[in-house]
Design a protein that fits this description.
One of its GO terms (molecular function) is ornithine decarboxylase activity. It comes from Seriola lalandi dorsalis. Pfam families: Orn_Arg_deC_N. This protein has 150 residues and is an alpha/beta fold. It has helices spanning 7-10, 35-48, 64-72, 82-90, 107-115, 126-135; strands at 55-57, 76-79, 98-100, 120-123, 140-143. Helix 2 (35-48) runs parallel beside helix 3 (64-72). It starts with 6 loop residues before the first helix and ends in a 7-residue tail after the last strand.
Length: 150
């Protein structure tokens, strides 16, 4: 749960109010995130659309702190790779809350997702649909941007 998480688990540092650029050591790139704002936006979503479960696209920001915060709130996750699936599942997220969504899936990663209990996948084309159908049975597929140009 969030109450037992420590900064070490999150892999981040706390910055005190009023910090300046001189207060930050010589690390590589960094970003500042207000996890309270992440929580507020999630709660706003749930109030506005209570019957719609959000699925956070991990590729947008795979920070453990953000993913762990959203996992504790019950969010779903849109994972586009084995690495993203591993991250989300390492935080105890049930496979029923994960969608494997990649517009051009590798067969090995389709099989990995299925072997790890993920039963929801998207497809963007007939080719992707056929690839998943050849690899797996019993997977729930979601239509995503299936367009036809004539």
């Amino acid at each position: 749960t969030m109450n037992t998480a420590t900064p070490t688990e999150f892999e981040f540092s706390f910055l005190e109010e009023g910090f300046s650029a001189r207060d930050i050591d010589d690390r590589d790139a960094f970003y500042v995130c207000d996890l309270g704002d992440v929580v507020k936006k999630h709660l706003r979503w749930m109030r506005a659309l209570p019957r719609v479960t959000p699925f956070y696209a991990v590729k947008c920001n795979d920070s453990r702190a953000i993913v762990m915060t959203l996992a504790s709130l019950g969010s779903g996750f849109d994972c586009a790779s084995k690495t993203e699936i591993q991250l989300v599942q390492s935080l105890g997220v049930d496979p029923s809350r994960i969608i494997y969504a990649n517009p051009c899936k590798q067969v090995s990663q389709i099989k990995y997702a299925s072997a790890h209990g993920i039963q929801m996948m998207t497809f963007d084309s007939e080719v992707e649909l056929m690839k998943v159908a050849r690899c797996l049975c019993g997977v729930l597929l979601s239509i995503c941007r299936l367009l036809s140009f004539h």
